[in-house]
Each structure stands twice: as C-alpha cells, then as structure tokens.
Write a structure and sequence with these properties.
- It is built from 2 helices and no strands.
- It has 40 residues and is mainly alpha-helical.
C-alpha cells in the first residue's frame, strides 16, 4: 500500500498517518456505538 511506501520513504509522515488511523478508529467506534444496521 502507499502508506507503507510513505512510512519507508518519508518518516515525517508517520505522525500524519498515525493521526489519520486514530481518527478512523474513533469514527468506527462511534459508528458501532450508534444504533443502526451494520455495514459490512
């Protein structure tokens, strides 16, 4: 994946990638907490 290339070639993007991953994880947790049909 491109993320792997970024981590290998551009170490300074690690913080940005981690931040994005955290935001995605939080968003997924919030969606799972909300009532509604699960999205596969």
């Amino acid at each position: 994946m491109m993320v792997a290339l970024w981590l290998m070639g551009m170490p300074f993007l690690q913080a940005l990638t981690i931040s994005t991953a955290v935001k995605v994880a939080v968003a997924l947790l919030e969606l799972r907490r909300l009532p509604g049909p699960p999205h596969s």
